[in-house]
Amino acid sequence: MGAEDNPVLSLGCPHCGETFASALRMDPRTFEAMRLESMIERCSICANASRFDKGDYFFIIDEGPS
Q1: Are residues 62 and 6 in contact, defined by beta-carbon separation less than 8 angstroms?
Q2: C-beta of residue 16 within 8 angstroms of C-beta of residue 43
Q3: Is the pLDDT of residue 65 over 70?
Q4: The predicted structure's pLDDT at residue 29
Q5: 30 assigned to some structural domain
Q6: How many beta carbons lie within 10 A of that of residue 43, not counting itself?
Q7: Which domain holds residue 49?
Q8: pLDDT band of 1, cuts 50, 70, 90
């Protein structure tokens, strides 16, 4: 991962199927080390709230403005 890469903790919405950024902001190493039972997050696209477990989260690379 280069200095220009920005990993964004993300989720897949079970309602609309789109990927959205989590409300949690952290790097992959910190996320791996933390304990997380479950969280309710609201999709920024369809606005539906859903419960997510740690295994539902994944990182995508935000390459910034193009």
Answers
A1: yes
A2: yes
A3: no
A4: 96
A5: yes
A6: 19
A7: 6-62
A8: very low
Give the model confidence (pLDDT) of 7-20 as tens digits: 999 999 999 999 99
Domain count, the chain: 1
SS3 track for the chain? CCCCCEEEEEEECCCCCCEEECCCCCCHHHHHHCCCCEEEEECCCCCCEEEEEHHHCEEEEECCCC
Longest CA–CA span in the chain (Å) reads 36
Look at residue 55 and tell me if it is in a domain: yes
* 36 occurs within a structural domain: yes
Pair of tokens at residue 26? 């952290």
Judged on CB neighbours under 10 Å (0-12, 13-18, 19+), 11 is buried
Q: Domain for residue 35, yes or no?
A: yes
